[in-house]
Amino acid sequence: MPWPETHLLLAAMGAAFLAGLARGFSGFGAALIFVPLGSAILGPRVAAPLLLVVDLVMASPMIPRAWRFAARREVAVMALGALAGVPAGAWLLLQLDAEALRWGMCAMVLAMVALLASGWRYQGAPWPPATLAVGAVSGLFSGAAQMGGPPLVAYWMGGTNDAARVRANLVLTGAIGGVLSALAYLAGGLLGLELLLLAAALGPGYGLGLWIGGRLFGLASQRMFRRICFGLILLAAVIGLPLWDR
C-alpha cells in the first residue's frame, strides 16, 4: 500500500476526526462517516481495516466503563452471532471489485441511516434467537465495512434499556466485533505495516473526536446531535459515491 499524498492524508485525518466525534457521543457511527469517505480517498480495502485498527486502539479506554454498565449476557449472545457473520463479511471485502465495494458501502450507509432516522425499533423483549440473528447481521456488516452498529441500535433502542445501557452495549459489542474482524483481516492479508503506520497518523485526530464526543454525551441535546450525525453520514455517503471519480 503506497503512502498517500499529503492532501489525501489530510482529508483522511479530517474524516477520522468526524468519525471519532460521532463514535464518542453515541457509541456508533464512525464507520458510517469514515468508510464512504475513506474508501473514496484511500480505497475500500484500506478504509475498513484502517478504521478497525484506529478504533480498537483509541476506543479501548471506553471498554472498562462499558463492561460495568452493559447487559453482558445479551452482548455475549450477540457476539456468538457475530462470530458467524464477520468472516462472511470479510470474504466479501476481499472478493468484490473495489468500485462495486464502494457502491455497496455507500448504499449500505444510506439504508442504515434511513433505518435509524425512521425511528423504527424492535419493541419486544430481548430474545436469544433474535439477538443471535441480529449479531450475525451486524457481524456481516462489520466484516465487510465495519458498519455493524445500526442493526444493534435498532434492536436495543426499542427495549427498556436507557441510553447509557445501550451505549455501553454498543461499545462492548463493537470491541468484540473489532477483535473478530481483526483476525479475519489478518488472515486475508489486509493488515500490514503500512496500514499500521497510517493508523498511527490518523489516530490522534480520531482520539480527539472521541474525547469531544464523550464530553458532549449527557450535555448536548441528543436529538440535535443525532440530526447532525445523520446529516454528516448522508453527506459522507454522497461524497463517497464513485460518481465523482469521473
TrEMBL record:
<keyword id="KW-0472">Membrane</keyword>
<dbReference type="InterPro" id="IPR052017">
    <property type="entry name" value="TSUP"/>
</dbReference>
<keyword id="KW-1003">Cell membrane</keyword>
<protein>
    <recommendedName>
        <fullName>Probable membrane transporter protein</fullName>
    </recommendedName>
</protein>
<feature type="transmembrane region" description="Helical">
    <location>
        <begin position="75"/>
        <end position="94"/>
    </location>
</feature>
<keyword id="KW-0813">Transport</keyword>
<feature type="transmembrane region" description="Helical">
    <location>
        <begin position="195"/>
        <end position="212"/>
    </location>
</feature>
<comment type="similarity">
    <text>Belongs to the 4-toluene sulfonate uptake permease (TSUP) (TC 2.A.102) family.</text>
</comment>
<feature type="transmembrane region" description="Helical">
    <location>
        <begin position="100"/>
        <end position="118"/>
    </location>
</feature>
<dbReference type="Pfam" id="PF01925">
    <property type="entry name" value="TauE"/>
</dbReference>
<dbReference type="GO" id="GO:0005886">
    <property type="term" value="C:plasma membrane"/>
</dbReference>
<keyword id="KW-0812">Transmembrane</keyword>
<feature type="transmembrane region" description="Helical">
    <location>
        <begin position="224"/>
        <end position="244"/>
    </location>
</feature>
<dbReference type="InterPro" id="IPR002781">
    <property type="entry name" value="TM_pro_TauE-like"/>
</dbReference>
<feature type="transmembrane region" description="Helical">
    <location>
        <begin position="130"/>
        <end position="148"/>
    </location>
</feature>
<keyword id="KW-1133">Transmembrane helix</keyword>
<feature type="transmembrane region" description="Helical">
    <location>
        <begin position="168"/>
        <end position="188"/>
    </location>
</feature>
